[in-house]
Amino acid sequence: MRNRWGILAVLFAVRFTIAFQLQSVAAVAPLLQQRFGVGLADIGILIGIYFTPGVVLALPGGAIGRTFGDKPTTIAALLLMMAGSLVMATADVWGWQIAGRLVSGVGGVLLTVQLAKMATDWFTGKEIATAMAMFISSWPAGVAISLLVQPAIGTAYGASAVFLSAGALTSIGIILITLYQPPPGTMAGVTGTERLDPLTLLALIVAGVIWGLSNVGFAMIFSFGPSLLAERGWSIAAAGSAISVVMWLSVISVPSGGFLADRFKRPFMLAIVASIAVATLLVWLSRSEAVITVLVLIGLIGGFPAGPIMSLAARVLAPETRAIGMGVFYTVFYGAMTLGPAIAGRLAKSAGTAAAALDLGALAMLACLPLMWLFERIVSVRHRRAQS
């Protein structure tokens, strides 16, 4: 396959499997609580631990791909994801659930880094903004499908069947990735060994924190939203279907946000307004009876900050620092995504309600605002020093 849009469709579908697997825990959280006798704090740890390997592997992830090649690395990552799902499907001990989730997370991290590199290879200088917006949309699409499908599977056949479905989808990803071909004339590329200056490193860390907190805030909706609705008497399937509205609408709002940011040249203003709106809606969701209305609004607005925030790292990275720079960015992101659900689970346990997790998500969204200002200040100082 040599058509870049066909390649993008393949990469979209393969990345979709990560989101589907990630959501497999949150979608059947009540079933896991009953089966293993655990609480929301444990569920939060199991959700967040998927991202833990990223803290260690994000930096060397690009080097691993360069050493072994795009296709072998992605296939190995998918095999790890499938193995983790099988462990979780067959294990009757909570410790093995954690072990299986970690193995899946290792594969998910390697796959995330590698797929982003492969998409960039095909679209650098060719509709890169549009392509990356569509590529990122595979995440909400995967979560949306999982919220519809996995609770129904879990209710009918148990949590093990949900993990088996995630493993089966991953196996399809292995078949699809065999269709991938590198773009014509691809060179070995820049080694990425160029060192980052202190201001660039600081800017990347701040950008990674912003992206991490933004995702933590948004993740509270699909990680603890089903549990919140279950507390109100909703069935697992109905709760999952309702929360999936957010993800389906995000498939539209994520690329729309990127388009609007480029069109009006005010990416930070869009991100700030959208972050405040989403934080307000998160607080409202746990206190309102108009659940579907709030979820629709979150879906329509929640994806707007993604494009502007994802572009932050590119603003301070040259081609020769891109590999190591994105490694730093993703390391910070994975750290935030590891801690966020675990802290949210603890708060929910202490408060006795999943609403506490959504309130934490609102605070995470609001915390992005001063960090955006800090990032702009760092970039401004860096620019002045470069000109002097």
How would you describe this structure to a colleague?
By secondary structure, the chain is an all-alpha fold. It has one domain (4-181, 192-387): Growth Hormone, Chain: A (Up-down Bundle). Helices cover 84% and strands 0% of the residues. The radius of gyration is 20 Å and the shape is globular. The model is unreliable at 188-192 (pLDDT under 50).
Tag the structure with descriptive keywords.
388 residues, mainly alpha, Growth Hormone, Chain: A, 17 helices, globular
SSE layout and pairing:
Elements: H1 4-27, H2 29-36, H3 40-48, H4 52-68, H5 70-90, H6 94-123, H7 128-136, H8 138-157, H9 159-177, H10 198-231, H11 236-264, H12 267-285, H13 291-302, H14 306-310, H15 312-316, H16 322-351, H17 355-387
SS element count, helices: 17
Structural class: mainly alpha
Which bin fits the share of residues in helices?
over 70%
Give the low-confidence spans. Answer: 188-192
CATH topology: Growth Hormone, Chain: A
What Rg, in angstroms, do the CA atoms define?
Answer: 20 Å
Q: How many strands, what sense, and barrel or not for the largest sheet?
A: none
- Tally of discrete structural domains: 1
Q: Choose one word for the global shape.
A: globular
Instruction: State the separation between the terminal residues, measured CA to CA.
Output: 48 Å
CATH class: Mainly Alpha
Q: Strand content of the residues, in percent?
A: under 5%
Let me know the average pLDDT.
Answer: 85
The topology string of helices and strands comes to HHHHHHHHHHHHHHHHH
CATH architecture: Up-down Bundle
What is the strand tally? 0
Q: Please identify which CATH superfamily we are dealing with.
A: MFS general substrate transporter like domains
